[in-house]
Amino acid sequence: MKIAFVSSEMVPFAKTGGLADVSGSLPLGLEKYGSEVKVFMPKYKTVKVVKNQTVIGKGIDVFFIENEKYFNRENLYGDRSGDYPDNLERFAYFSKAVLETLKKTGFKPDIVHCNDWQSALIPVYLKTIYKDNPFFANTKTVLTIHNLAYQGLFDKSLFPQTGLDWELFSIDGFEFYGKVNVLKAGIEFTDFINTVSPTYAGEIQTKEFGYGLEGVLQKRSDALFGILNGIDYDVWNPATDKNIAKNYDASSSDQKYLNKEDLQRSSGLTVDKNVPLIGIISRLADQKGLDLIADIIEKILKLKVQFILLGAGDDRYHVLFDGIAKKYPKITSINLKFDAVLAQKIYAGCDMFLMPSRFEPCGLGQMICLRYGTVPIVRTTGGLKDTISEYNESTKQGNGFTFLDYSSAKLFDTIKRALSLYKKKAAWLELVKRAMGYDFSLEHSAKEYLALYAKLASKKSARNHAGCVAK
Ligand code: ADP
User: Fold this and answer.
1) Same-domain status, 320 and 384
2) Both 138 and 266 in a single domain?
3) Ligand 1 nearest-atom number relative to CA 366
């Protein structure tokens, strides 16, 4: 099967979050199982390639869409003052350029797999501007929602930047409370929609998680699927990771502490393998439950632990954690930046990892933790619910510590449960080993995507979109 995979970010070229990890790894899995894949992303300033095309895997072409004005900037989507005001224009350009590049290269995809609002215009273009174009006669679209909180919302006056007829600015198309909503239009027009965990696929059809799009998603529920992301086990592998001090696997997990000591040393923490080291690597955004952590961080720090944070994002969290760093310099290491190498050291060196997310479409951090034998403490929502279950010392079931109510008291109790198991060295080591035995590798998700593509390919083509009245 021929797949065009379109994403606004992708490891190793540009990354702000989990979308980049998935875009960098899923195509490799698809290729492994026999698909012919081409990947498309913008050529940002950070993309250090000489040509506008390169190869990953065995033979996956990656095409970089170049435009000096739109993409040669410091960041991907915006800066500290907010989103770039011309984002609609930028990604409309990107989406059209992808379709034109496909035509130019003669690669006729069976499936164009779009990701998030930045490429959600593609299904719309294919069923409007390119509707009668024979080149795309057999092309179908999948739109993956990695996070429904980001919808591509713009002022109505900007709609002409899509290059589409005003007729599409309707309740069955782009219109969303008087604004342009690109993701909504993508959901209306794409053949299949999917999101990144089965639980989140259900959650987004409810008022609590739907961000106003629950009705649109319910309407299309027969075309809505949930496929759990996987991580690349070659990249995230403590047995071969070159960025960590001591390689280990499940059979030598007792050696993990050497990474902890290395991390403590390099972070200015007291080197002590017995003090529990709690880590966080996260975008500093409300979604990630940082308000819960903010509430109880000082209480946590009184529990004889060390705390290491790596993250960047909202100013108020920068201010908060700066303050914590100053007040507790001996037991905290606060790193307010994006640093892929440090991230690997933290995954390998910590004992526990916090993900108390308010909502979590899939979450990769907890899967990486399991791979590195770092015990996740999570709120059971979205993909966290699909991957982490409470450890039961007597039955030896489960792989982490969990809580459901979004409350700092519950988070605190859960941390204390983890710390009390940590005191029982043998039991803790057993949990570490057990965590490392889970398999959330990308091969699983690649197989599920292939089954989804096959299901879609076997459907009769419907070149008019699901919601709009066909002309
Ligand atoms: P999201 O995509 O919502 O940010 P995920 O858990 O799906 O969250 O993916 C986050 C990815 O980004 C993980 O690979 C995580 O290690 C990485 N990450 C997040 N913040 C940082 C940071 N400050 N430095 C390095 N890596 C980070």
Assistant:
1) yes
2) no
3) 6
Quick check: helix, strand or coil at residue 266? helix
User: What tens digit of pLDDT does each residue of 135-194 get?
Assistant: 999 999 999 999 999 999 999 999 999 999 999 999 999 999 999 999 999 999 999 999
What span, in angstroms and rounded, lies between the C-alpha atoms of 63 and 49? 11
Ligand 1: centre distance to CA 282 (Å): 5
Q: How far out from the chain centre does Cα 266 lie?
A: 28
Phi-psi region of 303 (alpha: psi -120 to 50; beta: other; left: phi over 0): alpha
In the sheet with 53-56, reading across from the earlier edge strand, the strands are 53-56, 60-65, 36-42, 2-6, 111-115, 140-145, 192-195, 224-226
- Residue 238 CA to ligand 1 center (angstroms) comes to 18
How many structural domains compose the chain?
Answer: 2
Output the six-digit token pair for 286: 């409300």
Does some domain include residue 244?
Answer: no
Counting ligand 1 atoms within 8 A of each CB, the residue from 9, 308, 338 with the most, and so the one to mutate, is 338
Query: How far apart are alpha carbons 346 and 386 in whole angstroms?
Result: 24
pTM of the model: 0.93
In this structure, the answer to whether residues 215 and 265 fall within a common structural domain is: no
Cα 471 to Cα 455: distance, rounded to the nearest angstrom: 27
What pLDDT, in 10s, does the model give residues 247-270?
999 999 999 999 999 999 999 999
